[in-house]
């Protein structure tokens, strides 16, 4: 059997510039890319991010934090988010949030941040990207309502979450909400709820000794057997086996 880890590590050790991918991301005008250290300081950025911060050279961002280059309150929000990813060593996946544009307006993006660890497994920074989901001249009102729904889902996974109720809170029809969810995440509202529940369940199974019953209750399943069936359907194995193999 080929040792893929050994092959990758051997190749990476030979690289003169481990941040060479930065040049590729320079070609994407609808996406910002960045690498930061454990204090949230920029180590690597693409040109799109530089321009959205009102600068022309990458050197203007390197060594500075989001709080130093973005206007408030966005800058402070971003640095808190960065430090939380590093502190918890947990990724942030497809967070719907607002970013500034060169016109000094704000637009909606899907942001993903992944912790970076040293050889001992300790987090030392993060790598991330933010992808535009609208152009600067589009009305952001629809995205704001969807962002509120996404936050409702995250805060209330232990409660019944019906698409009709979530749509009503956003002043949209269930069909309209599903359409916007598909545009942003490629799934319906109900599918996003299920995905969020299964993601949390998997993280708790991997990172704690919490009972399966407790995990099921925390994500809205009053019946452990129903949770186990859904988990097996999603991951291909029951929760107990998943924990043992993690």
UniProtKB/TrEMBL annotation:
Record domain HTH araC/xylS-type: where: 147-245
Annotated coiled-coil segments of the chain: none
Keyword Transcription regulation: yes
Keywords, in A-Z order: DNA-binding, Transcription, Transcription regulation
Record keyword Cell membrane present: no
GO terms, molecular function: DNA-binding transcription factor activity; sequence-specific DNA binding
Pfam families, per database record: HTH_18, PAS_4
Protein name: AraC-like DNA-binding protein
Source species: Aporhodopirellula rubra
């Amino acid at each position: 059997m080929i040792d893929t880890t050994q092959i990758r590590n051997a190749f990476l050790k030979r690289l003169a510039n481990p941040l060479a991918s930065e040049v590729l991301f320079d070609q994407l005008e609808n996406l910002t890319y960045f690498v930061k250290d454990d204090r949230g300081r920029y180590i690597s950025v693409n040109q799109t991010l530089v321009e959205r911060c009102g600068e022309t050279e990458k050197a203007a961002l390197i060594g500075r934090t989001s709080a130093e280059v973005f206007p408030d309150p966005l800058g402070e929000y971003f640095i808190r988010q960065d430090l939380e990813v590093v502190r918890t060593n947990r990724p942030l996946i497809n967070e719907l949030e607002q970013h500034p544009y060169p016109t000094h307006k704000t637009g909606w993006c899907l942001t993903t941040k992944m912790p970076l660890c040293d050889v001992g497994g300790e987090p030392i920074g993060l790598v991330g990207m933010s992808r535009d989901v609208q152009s600067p001249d589009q009305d952001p009102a629809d995205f704001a309502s969807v962002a509120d729904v996404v936050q409702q889902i995250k805060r209330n996974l232990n409660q019944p979450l019906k698409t009709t109720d979530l749509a009503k809170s956003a002043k949209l029809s269930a069909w309209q909400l599903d359409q916007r969810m598909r545009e942003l995440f490629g799934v319906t509202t109900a599918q996003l709820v299920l995905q969020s529940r299964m993601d949390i369940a998997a993280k708790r199974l991997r990172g704690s000794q919490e009972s399966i019953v407790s995990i099921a209750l925390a994500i809205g399943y009053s019946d452990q057997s129903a949770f186990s069936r859904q988990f097996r359907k999603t991951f291909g194995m029951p929760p107990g086996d998943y924990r043992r193999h993690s």
